[in-house]
């Protein structure tokens, strides 16, 4: 085997490992930490077709940050769709309980089937933990009810969350953007519910664009 062929095989194997280290079937309850993903609802709704996701984006709906999901993570990569003894069917009463923080019926179900089954928790435990971690956070005032679009630097966004949440640090959160728009903030928690450093794979995907546009709540200008 030539040296060139050897290094080619090593590179291919490395890429395969990297791919497999992302989303993969794992074992329920075996993971290192959580990511709580908070979606900025006005940015999501701006891309929806009329008549879709009306519970979140319909007339009279004015959500700010909503829970996209709670995701078990490895230090590198994440498990998904783990084999589980818990049912995949989500009762309507559980969905209804989450609607104030996750107003999309389909999203509540999807998060359980893709991520919740890997937590090792029951449905009640998973959704309860999601709510507990969400309520642990203090959303800075400027993000609670903006009535017009505002531009914020990446540093301003991070600083606002760090200031209002003792123990939170820059490397414990990641931003996601869609073009110039702030799309999502992801906060990392230990399994016991404390803020903790995000894994490198979460941090490297953080949006570096600045400034970012924060769209107003529905009905703003």
Would you mind describing this structure in some detail?
By secondary structure, the chain is of the alpha+beta class. The protein has one domain: Ribonuclease Rh, Chain A, CATH 3.90.730.10. The protein is 33% helix and 19% strand. It contains eight helices and eight strands. It has a four-stranded antiparallel beta sheet. A two-stranded parallel ribbon has the order 1-4. The chain has a two-stranded antiparallel sheet with strand order 5-8. A hairpin with a 2-residue loop joins strand 6 and strand 7. The longest helix has 18 residues. The chain is globular, with a radius of gyration of 19 Å. The N and C termini lie far apart (66 Å). 31% of the residues are buried. The N terminus is likely disordered.
């Amino acid at each position: 085997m030539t040296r060139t062929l050897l290094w080619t095989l090593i590179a291919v194997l490395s890429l395969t490992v990297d791919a497999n280290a992302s989303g993969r079937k794992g074992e329920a309850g075996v993971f290192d930490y959580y990511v709580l993903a908070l979606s900025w609802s006005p940015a999501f709704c701006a891309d929806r077709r009329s008549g879709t996701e009306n519970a979140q984006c319909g007339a009279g709906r004015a959500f700010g940050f909503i829970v996209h999901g709670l995701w078990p993570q490895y230090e590198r990569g994440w498990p998904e769709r783990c084999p589980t003894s818990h049912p995949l069917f989500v009762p309507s009463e559980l969905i209804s309980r989450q609607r104030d923080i996750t107003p999309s019926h389909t999203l509540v179900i999807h998060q359980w089937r893709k991520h919740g089954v890997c937590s090792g928790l029951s449905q009640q435990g998973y959704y309860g933990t999601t709510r507990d971690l969400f309520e642990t956070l203090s959303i800075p005032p400027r993000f609670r009810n903006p009535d017009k679009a505002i531009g914020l630097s990446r540093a301003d966004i991070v600083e606002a969350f760090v200031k209002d949440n003792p123990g939170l640090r820059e490397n414990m959160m990641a931003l996601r953007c869609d073009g110039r728009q702030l799309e999502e903030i992801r906060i990392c928690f230990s399994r016991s519910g404390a803020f903790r450093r995000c894994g490198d794979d979460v941090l490297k995907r953080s949006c570096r664009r600045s400034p970012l546009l924060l769209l107003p709540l529905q009905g703003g200008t």
